[in-house]
Amino acid sequence: MAPKKILHIVESFGSGVFSFLVDLVNNIDNEFDIIIAYGEREETFRNFKEYFSDKIKFIKIENFTRSINIMKDLKAYREIRSVLKSEKPDIVHLHSSKAGFLGRLASNCKKIKVLYNPHGFSFLMKDNSRIKRCIYWLIEKLASFNKAVIIGCSKGEYEEALKLTKNSVCINNGIDIKKLNGEIKTLKEKKIDFDNLKVCTVGRIGCQKNPILFNNIASKLSNIKFTWIGEGDLRSELTSSNIFITGWKKREDVLKILNENDIFILPSLWEGLPLSLLEAMYLKKVCIVSNCIGNRDVIKNGENGFIISNENYDEIIKNLNIEVCNKVSSKAKEDVINEFNIEKMIESYKKLYHKIKI
Fold first, then answer.
1. Helix (H, G, I), strand (E, B) or coil at 335
2. Which domains can be identified in the chain, with CATH numbers?
3. Alpha carbon distance, N-terminus to C-terminus of the chain
4. CA-to-CA distance for 111 and 188, rounded, in angstroms?
5. pLDDT tens track, the chain, 358 positions
């Protein structure tokens, strides 16, 4: 019997979603035929195919765009329809809002089984007005009637999915610990240095990651070096003189820079379940995060990191001591190993794929 053919459709082909797909498909390519229909973003690596198994087939959707563009969205819809017709997949797996909507619209769920990972629902994105967020919620609600299964990548995202449709499941994101161990084997575990504290974050410099607050925190702690690993359209908001912006880096460089820091902060306005946070926890960084879905599904305040419900990140940083840091960083790594490892995630996806009757 031929293996099931899975078509992944992803517009947001960069950062966390890219890492998620690399980890997922490279671990199941022996059991399934995998195709990835993708859009290019500024953060998409030019050599992205080198990150994937040679067994993966790629199809570029030329008209995928981040923002709403009616003409391009119609063209992207037609491209998706064409791919569905030519490839005849058994399962369509959609990633993020744009691909999630157009993919569900293009797919006939009576003939093709459709899965959808929001990776952070668009109606939770606080860079949009309340009216826009209501429209996005309505779009998600209407799209949910086509019987696609929504997969929440964290408990919080799953609970939001259930408000749209009961046809939802929860599969926590996880990181590939064996692969990560290989990538960091030459790096020495860094002990926190209170005489020369270093703080960092990872991600696109956009509204989601809250660069304005990051800048405010840095300006209050002018004696501490802050690093933003990434690039983005809100780079100009990072004006504090103690902030260093690396730009987009290769993965090995990201891990090296992350390891050189003592504290990882993630003041996000919204999240799905951030892989950068899981990696920082595994590297035993002291993690200080905002109180949003995804972050609070991973961090237990005072146990394996800190959750901030206001803007007083600087107060937490000032009051850290060696005993607290050792306790929370050790628990953080332990929790990633036990709860957010890729083996657990992959097994859940494989069970879901195999469970689907075609």
1. helix
2. 5-174+341-355 (3.40.50.2000), 177-339 (3.40.50.2000)
3. 12
4. 52
5. 789 999 999 998 877 788 889 999 999 999 999 999 999 887 778 888 999 999 999 999 999 887 778 899 999 999 999 999 999 999 999 999 889 999 999 987 667 899 999 988 878 777 677 888 898 899 899 888 888 999 999 999 999 999 999 999 999 999 989 999 999 999 999 989 999 999 999 999 999 999 999 999 999 999 999 999 999 999 999 999 999 999 999 889 999 999 999 999 999 998 878 889 999 999 999 999 999 988 999 999 999 999 998 889 999 999 999 999 999 999 999 999 999 999 999 999 999 999 988 7
Q: Where are the alpha helices (DSSP H) in 88-192?
A: 97-106, 130-143, 155-164, 177-183
Q: How far apart are CA 224 and CA 262, in angstroms?
A: 11
> Alpha helix (H) ranges present in 168-274?
177-183, 211-220, 251-260
Token pair 């820091």 in the structure block, residue: 261
Query: Three-state SS for 245?
Result: strand
Angstrom distance (rounded) from CA 71 to CA 25 = 31
3-class secondary-structure state, position 253:
helix
Backbone phi and psi for residue 263, each to the nearest 5 degrees, phi listed first: -125, 135
C-alpha pair distances (Å), 196 with each of 192, 221, 291, 320, 326: 9, 12, 27, 13, 17
pTM for the complete prediction?
0.80
